[in-house]
Amino acid sequence: MKKVLFVCLGNICRSPSAEAVMNAKINEKKLEHEISTDSAGIMGWHAGEPADQRMQKHAEKRGYNLTSLSRQFDPTVDFEKFDYIIGMDHENMRDLRAMDPEGKYANKIYLMTGFNKNIPADVVPDPYYGGAAGFENVLDILDDACDGLLQEITHNEE
């Protein structure tokens, strides 16, 4: 079983959306027994809260259900537990690497947009302070990146 953890700053927009998009793709390909997902935030501001209502609304329009509750990334557990730890932007990547000062888990930490195949995005931008177009953009990028990530995981399993 491959375990994937998506990480953003607060775990209420980007990372729960990545989790939902990836879960939909996993279910579509009937890989539920081979790949599991979770999401977390660098900060614990929203721990225990559902995803941002605006993000949920935009995701639901595409058939994605954001059901996870926010939690903070726990370096004492998450680095060991997950095979792929995926940051949404360069700040998330910096923060994840700072929690692994010896680089013991460097081979598990990835930038989400590194898996994009069609959308040339540098990062998954935080839509929190923007309008509807920002949430749609996040979902477009995540849809593309999750396709690439799923391809990467299943290719490495062969």
Structure description:
This protein has a single domain (2-157), classed as 3-Layer(aba) Sandwich (Rossmann fold). Helix 1 crosses helix 5 (132-157) and helix 2 (53-61) packs across helix 5. It is globular, with a radius of gyration of 14 Å. It is an alpha/beta fold. The protein has five helices and four strands, in the order βαβααβαβα.
The overall pLDDT, averaged over residues, is 95
Strand content: 5-15%
Number of helices: 5
Query: How many domain regions?
Result: 1
CATH fold name: Rossmann fold
Overall, the morphology is globular
Number of strands: 4
Provide the helix percentage.
40-55%
Amino- and carboxy-terminal Cα gap: 13 Å
Structural class: alpha/beta
Oligomer: single chain
Low-confidence stretches: none
**Biggest sheet strand line-up:** 2-1-3-4
Major beta sheet summary: 4 strands, parallel
Could you name the CATH homologous superfamily? Response regulator
- What's the CATH class label? Alpha Beta
Along the chain, the helix and strand elements come as EHEHHEHEH
CATH architecture: 3-Layer(aba) Sandwich
- Output the radius of gyration: 14 Å
